[in-house]
Amino acid sequence: MQSPLDELARSIRERRAILFVGAGVSMSVGLPSWQVLIEHMAKELQLDPERIGGRDANYQTIAEYYRLKLGSMESLRDWMKRHWQVSREKVAASAIHSLIVSLDVPIIYTTNYDRNLEVAFEIHGRDYVKVANARDVARVTPETTEIVKFHGDFDDETSLVLAETDYFERLSFDSPLDVKFRSDALRRTVLFIGYSMSDMNIRLLLHRLWSTWHRSGYESERPVSFIFMPNPNPVQEAVLSRWGITVLSEEKNDPGEALQVFLSKLKDRAQQSSVPSVPDRR
């Protein structure tokens, strides 16, 4: 019987897996935290950070207030576009980004707004197509890796999922990108990396993925899905297992180091086979 890592590696090798990439991957190369965003919005709105919750403040709610007060998110988007990036040299030196590219998965979803994944593909000479809205979906080709900006892209302000209302509207899971994700996830193994399990948005996404299969009556046919956590957590493992998600982990003190070790092992396992890969991009 295959180990979970070997099962995932086989899906990677046969191009039946997709990645879902979270903020932890971008923070590994020095991207600002949500707290930095909160402090910037508070300063621009002339708010006392302590009066709006201090370190417990919710960036989505403050972003909602920002839009109410200023009428749009354009100024905030421009600030984030300038600051939510790192140099190409840092991306080039990132073992995590290099490993992501080398896994050669056909589709990468990300809730990150930055261009680090796109830059990594450019640095390593790999073609990709960015998908941030319904128009972009029509540009997808089977031969090129898709980088799906699930929470939007700085080049399209209307695509950003940042304020509280944006998140609430996405809870219906009926936008073009939601429909696309359901289609992709129904027939592929999904690996989630770079996420905190305290993020209720990703937890809801995982639950909805399970619920879709559960209601279908064909749950036993569902491709296995995985999530990487830096350290084992028996509570999370039990809850996520109920939703059909297998937790994989590495016992390292540094989350970035743990993810790098995991991706390196996954790459090695995916390449350890005499069975030729199947060139199926879709």
TrEMBL record:
CDD domains: SIR2-like. InterPro entries: DHS-like_NAD/FAD-binding_dom, Uncharacterised_Sir2-like. SUPFAM superfamilies: DHS-like NAD/FAD-binding domain. This is Sir2 family NAD-dependent protein deacetylase.
